[in-house]
Model the fold of this input.
Amino acid sequence: MIIFRNVNALKTYRRHGLRTHGSDVIFTSVLRVNMAASMISQAALRGLQLSSSKHLFLDKFKGSRLSSRRWLNLQEYQSKKLMEQSGVAVQRFYVADTASEALEAAKRLNAKEIVLKAQILAGGRGKGVFDSGLKGGVHLTKDPTVVGDLAKKMLGFNLSTKQTPKEGVKVKTVMVAEALDITRETYFAILMDRSCNGPVMVGSPQGGMDIEEVAASTPELIFKEVIDIFEGVRDDQALRMASNLGFKGHLERQAADQIKKLYDLFLKVDATQVEVNPLGETPEGQVVCFDAKINFDDNAEFRQKAVFAMDDMSESDPTESEAAKWDLKYIGLDGNIACFVNGAGLAMATCDIIDLHGGKPANFLDLGGGVQERQVYEAFKLLTADPKVEAILVNIFGGIVNCAIIANGITKACRELELKVPLVVRLEGTNVQEAKRILAESGLPITSAENLDDAAKKAVAAIKK
Done:
């Protein structure tokens, strides 16, 4: 199984004469759930076969709070800056951190109409509510003098939307932009598609709405163009997509030019997806990207330092952020048995079997491969800091992971952190006998388990004592 998340990685692979096939190549970005109704993501999701009858993890925890790991996710104004730098047509805008800055920005725009947008990493801002009493995180006005007053009711206050926690998210920045009339809205995206072994363009003349609804009700209005990674977007492809999006006359050429520039951006920043909704036309005859979402390949951080430096972690779960520092994958759940595993599949299986025996997982913590003792120690610090945790279940299947390293990390953590909750450990695989010896000779109150079922039973029993 070979996993690529961006075009540059795939291009390098193929330049060395290595071949890929649809059955052994996965582009992880196509698993994005809110594109599920599109032909691309539907195919990926069908391939996973995640039926609720077979996967308790997806079914049993519907009522639990699930904080999925957040990869790099930029604010709207940051995405607009990247597009602007690539020659993509966007609205004129400024960013403000204070009400006085917002007022000054509105005056400098000297626009017929101004749009003021609260900047948070959540959708549904327009219908959101501030705890200041202001309704709506997006406001239009033709009077620049009122922008300051509106910004006062946004900045420093929490905005609640359908995608935020109940308490909302504090707004620290607002975007002050020129409001442009839109005569027609279209949808356009570039993303990776497993079935095509590379990037594709997806577009629809029905923009400004959920693309899922379009795909479900009028699938004939979803258009797809496969992009050759060495040729890039050809002129004929860009023009054909522009025509399919409904652009006419000189606007067709203008839209095609924007499509090619969006692909240039896609490559330049190692994106896994660039989604523009809407890509609209104005009464003045301009094609403008009014809103965009860009997803990035986290594995390309080493060469995209400027982009990743924009990451605002203030909206992330603190435990998740701390876990990421140590290359740990953490998801918080509402149970009381902490799960400490290596591998996402094993993590889900562990959560499932705990649930099967009447327990509730407190988290999903994946060590991954190449783990070191310090990571084990830091993982225990995270788990024991959660007041909900009443027991810890360690389930390691050692392949590239050395079980002895895990055992040393466990004993160090137990001693230095003075572990107070029951600990059940199941180890299997590489150097497991040495690992079991380390645990047995430690003199620590560690309960060993022979297999996953035995480990789950013992962890649940420890809670019930």
The chain is about 35% helix and 20% strand.
